[in-house]
Amino acid sequence: MEMACRVINRRRHVGLQQLLSFAQTGRSFLGPVKATKFITDAECHESVLISSTVRLLEGLDLTCAVGHLLNEAVQAQNDTYKIGTSTLLFLVGAWSRAVEDCLHLGIPTTVIVSVMSEGLNSCIEAVVSLQVPIHSVFDHMDNTSTVYKLETVNATLCPFLQVPSGSGLLQERDDFKDATSPLLSTYSLSGRHAESPKFFKPQNNLETEKNTSQALKNNLYTDSFCKKSALTHSRHFNRTDNSHWISRHDGFLEQLGSTPKILRCNDLGELAVGLSHGDHSNMALAKAAVRLQWQSLCLQQANWMAPFMFDISRLLTCCIPGLPETFSRVGLGYVTFVTMSSITLIKELQDQPFRVILIEGDLTESYRHLGFNKSVNIKTKLDSGALSEDSAEELWTNHVLQVLIQFNVTLILVQGSVSEHLTEKCMHSKRLVIGAVNGSVLQAFAEATRAVPVAYVTQVNEDCVGSGVSVTFWMSPHDINRSNRIAILLTAEGINLITAVLTSPASAQMETKEDRFWSCVYRLYHALKEEKVFLGGGAVEFFCLSHLQILAEQSLNRGNHACLGWLPDSSSWMASSLSVYRPAVLKCLAGGWHEFLSAIMCNTATHPSAVEARTFIQQHVQNAIDSGSPSSYILSEYSKLSNGVFHSGISDNLELVPRVYDTVTPKIEAWRRALDVVLLVLQTDSEIITGLVHTEVNSQELDGVLFL
Prior knowledge:
One of its GO terms (cellular component) is cilium. InterPro entries: BBS12 (IPR042984), Cpn60/GroEL/TCP-1 (IPR002423), GroEL-like_apical_dom_sf (IPR027409), GROEL-like_equatorial_sf (IPR027413). GO terms for molecular function: ATP binding. Pfam families: Cpn60_TCP1 (PF00118). This protein is an alpha+beta fold. It folds into 2 domains: about 5-135 and about 535-560 and about 575-690, Orthogonal Bundle (GROEL, domain 1); about 280-365 and about 395-530, GroEL. A 6-stranded mixed beta sheet has the order 14-19-18-15-16-17. Strands 4-21-22 form a 3-stranded antiparallel beta sheet. The protein has a 3-stranded antiparallel beta sheet with strand order 9-10-11, with helices on one face.
């Protein structure tokens, strides 16, 4: 992809400048209001619309080592969690700028690495106070019927950032019985050293807890919110708003008052709206898929009481461009495409139950499974009477047809490719062959029809054949897309398989819509899996910013690193360097969060300029610091409607204001990976030129150009 070039100053750290250049390209993907980009191929001049970091990096020319490193980190985040890549990319740029500022101040590299690593670890430990438990979200749902209603509400998506939205909130009428009561689990993530090159792997929570420095736990500044003992008589809790929050023994939050109120989420609708991040239509589809899977499981197992786990492998997408977006929906079964030549066959057979066989691998004459070994020391001599290749294909096709006729098979689902000649032969004999079927689809049909998947047709017997599959048109046979294919629906009674059909009138938007749908699905999936979420809307980042500034001020005022427990040897050079430079490094690290919040506010147009956004943020950071407890300040603002920082401006009733949530582990791992990339680039570049160059150097060498 051709993009604007950025001048690289060779007198500064080249690697960090390159990271900053790459990160700037994805700035518009941050926040609930995402700006899309066109990627144009320089050779064939084809364009596609994107709004995700992964798609962006796929289109960039990442020829330099730093680009490959960044792409590997983003891909690792995407492969593990499928979300958080935009946060990762932006923080890579923000913290690259922060490290450059530290270098400009003459701070040693070892000090930068040590203080930034411990600073982030401290934030990760402290933000546990902003976790919200998810409890029994399926208790109020009906396992037989659901009524969906879209009602237009001018709702706030981002309380801290004041993001308005005209989209509808999903409201429902639910008459649900108790189906499950998921157990709550406490969550703790401790830090690992950022200089470790193992940042491409997710961190094991148990190992982290064991390896966390006890000195860091005991001596680093901790918000009074995170302490096990509730300071109900502390001056920090003597507020006039009567909104006091304390930390419970299980790590979650409780509001004190006349009626104690525990901050929790126990409704799937509230959770989905909170995690939609402005994309209500796709989140509505994701939520419907979760409900459908839960309802299907309840109907299959009447006495089922085990905790429900959303099986994301049983959810597929089928993209149909050219139709209005209102045609998008989710449903049980498998939606796929067939060619126009199959329309007549499906019309004849759609009212009849299909007998099905499942083929793992290719359905071709030359296919051999991966474990197949050719016989050795055997030579085949061909004479004039030997069969030609075409004749061998014909013989194999006829043999396959004989097997299908023998067992009265009318539907063949194949995981791999299918012989075109066999497909035509089957069509003439009124048999439907569908290739390139996902492995989870085969498994779902195997469970529903009791078919046994086989590698070769020659292995088929009566016990391998399933029954009860129905095939219908998903859309009218007259609605054929541009590739001259028609969508059909395959289903069976009791099948545990859901297809989300995504439609868009513009083909260029189809990929973007699918990416956004999967983002919503994975946000919901991780939240249900972990049974906890963060307060969103910038609350977590705001807390980290406040927390780091308090650490910096404390370090600056005390002037004694020993009280913070960073290093035991006060006589060492490293210890003295940490004591001198720690406040500056922590402030630079906090600057990354400041830049993050400012970018979101500018993207959502809540503030016309970055200067106004930064001023607004700093005012509330100072208020949070002055309050003595940033987490209490944040939670108090969530409980108010009249305050500017969390003011929704839509209603005087708190119950009509939807909370905003964020996933826990994907967000934290995105932070870790971002800082790990920056610090790795910092340490691997052995020569950092910060002063004047005394030798004569060509101006092109001084100001190189990095093409993105």
